[in-house]
Amino acid sequence: MKDVTISDSIVYIGADDKTIDLFESQYVVPNGVSYNSYLILDDKIAIMDTVDPRATEEWFANLEKALDGKTPDYLIVSHMEPDHAGNIQAVAEKYPEMKIVGNAKTFPMMAQFFDMDLSDRKVVVKEGETLELGNHALQFFMAPLVHWPEVMVAYEQSEKILFSADGFGKFGALDTEEDWACEARRYYFNIVGKYGAQVQALLKKASGLDIQMICPLHGPILKENLGYYIGLYDTWSSYKPESEGIFIAYASIHGNTAKAAKKLKEILEAKGAPKVSIADLARDDMAEAIEDAFRYDRVVCCCATYDGGMFPCMEDFLAHLKAKNYQKRKMGFMENGSWGPVAAKKMKAVVETMKDITIVDPVVTIRSTMNDANIQTMEELADALLA
Ligand SMILES: Cc1cc2nc3c(=O)[nH]c(=O)nc-3n(C[C@H](O)[C@H](O)[C@H](O)COP(=O)(O)O)c2cc1C
Ligand SMILES: [Fe+2]
Ligand SMILES: [Fe+2]
Predict the structure, then answer these.
(1) Measured between alpha carbons, how far is 115 from 65 in angstroms, rounded to an integer?
(2) What's the pLDDT band for 370 if we cut at 50, 70, 90?
(3) What is the pLDDT of residue 3?
(4) Could you give the CA distance from residue 286 to residue 57 in angstroms, rounded to a whole number?
(5) Sign of CA dihedral 303, 305, 307, 310
(6) Which of 351, 296, 52, 237 minimizes the C-alpha distance to 229?
(7) Ligand 3 centre and the CA of 82: distance in Å?
(8) CB of 337 closer than 6 angstroms to any ligand 1 atom
């Protein structure tokens, strides 16, 4: 179990979920996911978000243990997505005196999810406002569209803790020993990636605060070296590549395009490419492929022609990139077709709708199986990618 101690008066009350098949019905989470929730104990007691309905029982047990017979005064709702908001009604009914703290956009959404009368229990906070708890005070900052419109973060002034909502979140249950960046990056680009400008706006607000600890809604509590995490978020949200290298994504039906993609990897490595990562879009985790496309500064898309178009997993990959606001990269193409290869033209048509993409020529066109002329063109493409 990772260290979830925060301080004498702030207690972790979240839960790990290691049995979920797909997070948000889309993302494989081999090491599970955590739904973080916190309790601040002071003259007034505040619960920082609830958890997914999948963890209701464990969360209520943790909450009751931490309360030790006391009753909470506030529930702070930083985000209405059900993985955090799932138990709002249950906890509101259990503690009828407790007030619910949100912003102007929180409550209309709450009424869509839950059937309860909160008219005399609502506390609506605005940008920069503070909620006094005693020695502790929570200051709220709106983080619209990181990654829902009602998201807000809270800065606890006495202990200098940022409760960052889904920001700085990571896949993986808390007892997982793994590199933070890999699963945080996959989380970021797939879930938040579209909203780089909004994350930049939030980072700007955060830069004015003295932050000693970050308590996100998923993944480990960040206590040290915060500049590292904030730096990565700055890189990611500004759509700058994080690493020099080439990501090769291939979509192959019978394996010939796959073989050519692997050959291109060999050629690039022989020419001294800094790093070459490769993925089989039909079989590997799509979210990981999206992550790698954002991580590196150059991408090569290799695709078999299928019914006069792209093989569907490539279409899907490019649609995901487009939806996540993919930009500022160099891209090359390789296509395959037995009678009328058009995959490169189709891929380019999608990529040309993205911002700041430099297309690297030449296109490699294979007609069924790669031949010497194709290898020659791959050499030229490799040189152009490394130039
Ligand atoms: C269902 C299906 C549809 C295809 N449609 C086209 C097509 O429209 N145009 C074309 O040139 N080749 C088409 N092909 C042929 C493949 O693109 C070609 O054989 C290619 O070499 C496959 O590469 P792979 O071995 O990487 O799958 C199709 C193949 C299949 C199985
Ligand atoms: Fe969320
Ligand atoms: Fe979440």
Answers:
(1) 28
(2) very high
(3) 79
(4) 33
(5) positive
(6) 237
(7) 8
(8) yes
21-27 contacts: CB < 8 A, separation 24 or more?
A: 23/83, 23/171, 24/83, 24/191, 26/190, 26/287, 27/171, 27/186, 27/187, 27/190, 27/191, 27/287
308 lines ligand 1 (CB under 6 A): yes
Whether 306 is in the pocket of ligand 1, judged by its Cβ within 6 Å, is: yes
Reference 333, options 368, 316, 357; nearest CA is 357
What residues form DSSP beta bridges with 38?
Answer: 12, 48
CA–centroid distance, residue 338 to ligand 1 (Å): 6
Q: How far is the CA of 189 from the centre of ligand 3 (A)?
A: 13
pTM across the whole model: 0.95
Q: How confident is the model at residue 1 (pLDDT cuts 50, 70, 90)?
A: low
Cα–Cα distance measured from residue 369 to residue 216, given in angstroms and rounded to the nearest whole number: 49
Confidence of residue 237 (pLDDT cuts 50, 70, 90): very high
Q: Is the CB of 253 under 6 A from ligand 1?
A: yes
Average pLDDT over residues 264-293: 98
Tracing tokens 């009424």 back to the chain, one arrives at 111
Q: Which residues of 279-296 are buried (b: 16+ CB within 10 A; e: fewer)?
A: bbbbeeebbbbbbbbbbb
CB atoms within 10 A of CB 178: 12
Separation of CA 292 from chain center: 13
Q: Whose CA is nearest to atom 28 of ligand 1?
A: 306
CA 159 remoteness from chain centre: 27
Residue 310 binned pLDDT confidence (cut-offs 50, 70, 90): very high
Q: How many residues does the chain have?
A: 387
Cis peptide before 136 (omega within 30 of 0): no
Q: How large a percentage of the chain has pLDDT more than 70? A: 99
Residues of the chain by 3-state class (helix, strand, coil), percent to 5? 35, 25, 40
- Determine phi and psi for 226, rounding to 5 degrees: -65, -25
Q: Is 145 left (phi over 0), alpha (psi -120 to 50) or beta?
A: left
pLDDT digits (tens, 9 = 90+) for 38-93: 999 999 999 999 999 999 999 999 999 999 999 999 999 999 999 999 999 999 99
CA nearest neighbour of 239 among 313, 173, 188: 188
Query: Which residues, at least 6 apart from 48, have a Cβ–Cβ distance to it below 8 Å?
Result: 37, 38, 39, 40, 76, 78, 154, 163, 215
